[in-house]
Amino acid sequence: MANVVRAHEFIYTGGNTVDGAKVEHALGEGSWIPTLNQFVDKLGSLGLNPFCMLVVDFMHEYELGTWKALFTHLIRLLYALPQGSELVAALDSRYEEVPTFGNGIIRRFSNNTSEMKRLASHDFEDILQCAIPVFEGLFPDKHDAMVQSLLYQFAQWHALAKLRLHSESTVNFLEETFKKLLQKLRKFQASFCATFNAIELPKEKAACQRKAAQHPETNGSLLESNGPRTKKFNLSTYKFHAMGDYVRTIRLYGTTDSFTTQIGELAHRTLKAFYLLTNKLDTPAQLAKHEHRRHVLWQAREVGDLLSSSQQPAHSSPPLASNDDLKHHHIATTQNNPVDLFTFL
User: Fold this and answer.
1) What is the DSSP letter of 162?
2) How far apart, in Å, are the Cα atoms of 129 and each of 177, 282, 339?
3) Which in 84, 88, 238, 272 has the greatest CB count within 10 A?
4) Are residues 149 and 173 in contact, defined by beta-carbon separation less than 8 angstroms?
């Protein structure tokens, strides 16, 4: 904290610029910025480390972050190959032929998976789990093995990071897998990506042109350029950097399903549905009224369910077999007489 205070004094007392030599020398090496953190200011004397307060965000950092970035760049590389459009069409066709699996584990893929339109985090998770056979043979032979190995390491790290029960051996395995994955990512960036001239996807070019048309005074050069821009695979992002924090976070706070942002993300759907019912005037108040009505209806439904369950006669359970004493357990052959666990408890 002393180096941050010193840099703070250089800026506000000495009049030095934020990116000046004195400020950077005072901060030293690392990702320090000349801003005083209130948690450190108030609780730093008690030994609080504010970095331990931050947990990983698996959905945004990995499924919608690093994996989406890799998948997007792989599609760019397919377009850079001869007959790139046909290869991307083959990829979409292969994803479309993937059958569903389990109860919502692997869902049916859309017709054009490569366009990535209106996909949620679970969709990108499904894309990753089925990526190895889908991408097989699309790249030249000398590069196909590297892509297959990289996809395997990505899927392995994903599976280990999402485990709901960890031991010391699995955490160590996760750490070793990340080291191997990082080596393959660097090799992929240095050798594979440098071989091809990857350009932006058609949807990226269209989005760039729309943005330039809205602000022609500042983006005139983008409107004048006809060809697509070159795109490089960037590993120098926070989301790739955060993948190294998962082992430490799991050791401190437990498995990654113990903390998630999906609850808040799913709440957006309710507000979006209520927004269509408003007249767009004083929207927050109208959204609050709709939420209050939904809560009242939900409470009324709960009371009605309790009353109906208390008035119904108790169903007799299916008769047990004659040799029940020889069985370890008994499972009923029908589900017509369920037992409510909460009422039972």
Assistant:
1) T
2) 17, 44, 36
3) 88
4) no
Tokens found for residue 268: 């957006």
Burial of 10 (0-12, 13-18, 19+ CB in 10 A): buried
What is the pTM (predicted TM-score) of this model? Answer: 0.71
Encode the chain (345 residues) as per-residue pLDDT tens digits.
Answer: 678 888 888 888 888 888 888 888 888 876 678 887 788 788 878 888 777 888 899 989 999 999 999 999 999 999 999 888 999 999 999 999 999 998 878 989 988 899 998 888 889 999 999 999 999 999 998 899 999 999 999 999 999 999 999 999 999 999 999 999 999 999 999 988 888 888 888 888 888 888 878 777 665 565 566 667 888 999 999 999 999 999 999 999 999 988 877 777 778 888 888 999 999 889 999 999 999 998 998 888 888 877 777 666 555 555 544 455 677 777 777 878 777 777 777
Long-range pairs for 37-46 at CB < 8 Å and ≥24 separation?
40/1, 44/1
Helix (H, G, I), strand (E, B) or coil at 272: helix
Q: How far is CA 192 from the centre of its chain?
A: 25
Nearest Cα neighbor of 138 from 184, 79, 67, 195 is 79
Contact present, 154 and 162 (Cβ < 8 Å)? no
